[in-house]
Amino acid sequence: MPAENQPLVVAIIGAGPSGIYAAEALSQQSEVPVQVAVLDRLPVPFGLVRYGVAPDHHSIRSIRNTLERTLSKAGVRFYGDVTIGRDVTVDELRSTVDAVIYAFGAGSDRRLGIEGEDLVGSIAAPEFVAWYCGHPDVHPDTDRTARRTAPDELELEAERAAQLVATTRQAVVVGVGNVALDVARVLIKSADELAETDMADDVLASLAGKTVTDVYLLGRRGPAYTSFTTKELREIGQLPGVDVIIDERDLELDESSQAVVGQDKVAARNVAVMREWATRQPSGASRRIHFRFWTRPIRLLGEGRVRAVETERTRLNADGFVDGAGPGETIEAQLVVRSVGYKGIEMPGVPFDESTGRVPHSEGRVIRDGAFSDDEYVTGWIKRGPTGVIGTNKSDAVETVTSLLADVHDGDVVPRHRIDELDALLASRGIHPLGMPAWRRIDAAEIELGHSHGRERTTLAHRAELLAAADEPDDEAGRES
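Predicted structure:
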């Protein structure tokens, strides 16, 4: 029998916003005493806040200050550099804790499924974003033993990205969401403007030599159907030395678009912003961002490397789906970035629905073999799909934690374990997790490096750099759980 007031031990796999918001929801309630272990395969926390938000968006990236406060709370512990499925299995983890919450996100990309997509110069937005954000998976160490989890194919994409930006004049970004805007902005901004960010030195060195003059954003639907937030969209029109070019005919709203604008305030604001841009006379700036709506790529052209994108015009059919509406233009381009969505990747030992790219669940309770699992829960993108903004993960996590606490109240989940059982399991495998003291040393090292360059901070992109910064100077082990 568990001791009275014995804490419930909950392991959360993933230290991004969804996982940390789940830890926050657990730590803020007082009905059930808890001990929370937040595990991540990377040496550092914060997930997409660190490695998915563009470095020039300082206000959004500052959310990590709030997330850090949760990881620093009593009863919450960060276990960095621990890979579930490699260091320990899911079943082994479940045997040492009372409940597990999966919060490992959606780490892959969706493909276009068109001819030429595998040409050099065609890359996925998640990999390109990871590259310019300094993700260690795509900035491999010379010593490959330090790369404990990065897939080999990501290294190839990263090397290609660094080479391509220096040899690209025209780029095409397929997609009309905030990530597409981020990619376009990073490609078109001057090196001096990007030097004000915390980008890794390797990335800034590559971007300093870029020669991009034109970026085209392609949307297969009209401007009413974009996924932009208005604040991010407006930023594009405020970039110095950049003309924004939109064909006014693309802004004529059909009946379905009018209905969307009439019901969705964000869509209405976005269309208003773009209509104002369309009235501007080009200033003759040397850099341009072009919006192409009702347009989709049908073929990437080139021999060995992309040289152009063949497009077709589109329209909505009676059922609301996109159909081809005749030939479009052929856009010269040396770089094509597909930004048409993330998708979930299966974690060994965790139920997974290939058709949706998500963990099957109901209100956050994981469904395993057709029934609710006694101790498994899910939150974030791997629960609902890659939708919403960072704040959406908070309400999502609250729903999952509410389900977990209800199950504790009903006696379906009972405190039986202690946190030191997890520590003992990891120690038996020779795994020495990085805790919050290690993160603070990394944080200090990045700030110190940035100050030495006249910047606020500089991201350490290589795993070996992160691990070296994490170690205590006078302690060779230097790694704490």
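Summary: DSSP finds 18 helices and 18 strands in the chain.
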